[in-house]
């Protein structure tokens, strides 16, 4: 789930952003919304999340199948 107001989204559905891109900047994700953020920066966040999760799984598999971060 992406979470909601005052809720933390799953780490498996997040994209790391700097403070400016996340909330502080004029064109920040939480100021302009997902669709405008994607349009403005030429992103497909769902595809990016998928790619990050594939890379994470590959890294876990390379480390004997263990999670990189404990839950």
Describe the structure.
The chain has helices at 19-24, 29-32, 34-41, 45-62. With 71 residues, the protein is mainly α. The longest helix has 18 residues, at 45-62.
How is the topology of this model organized?
Blueprint (H helix, E strand, L loop, with lengths): L18 H6 L4 H4 L1 H8 L3 H18 L9
Query: What share of the residues does DSSP label as strand, in percent?
Result: under 5%
- Main sheet characteristics: none
How would the global form be characterised?
elongated
- Give the distance, in angstroms, between the N- and C-terminal Cα atoms: 17 Å
What's the total count of β strands? 0
Mean pLDDT, all residues: 84
| Class of secondary structure makeup | mainly alpha
Rg (C-alpha, Å): 14 Å
Residues in helix, % = 40-55%
- The string of secondary-structure elements, in order, is HHHH
Unreliable segments of 5+ consecutive residues = none
Q: How many helical stretches? A: 4
How would you summarize what this structure contains?
The protein has 71 residues and is an all-alpha fold.
What features would you highlight for this structure?
71 residues, mainly alpha, 4 helices
């Amino acid at each position: 789930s992406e979470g909601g107001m005052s809720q933390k989204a799953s780490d498996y559905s997040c994209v790391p952003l700097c403070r400016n891109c996340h909330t502080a900047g004029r064109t920040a994700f939480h100021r302009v919304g997902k669709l405008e953020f994607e349009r403005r920066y030429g992103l497909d966040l769902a595809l990016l999340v998928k790619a990050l999760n594939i890379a994470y799984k590959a890294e876990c598999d390379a480390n004997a199948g263990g999670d990189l971060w404990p839950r």
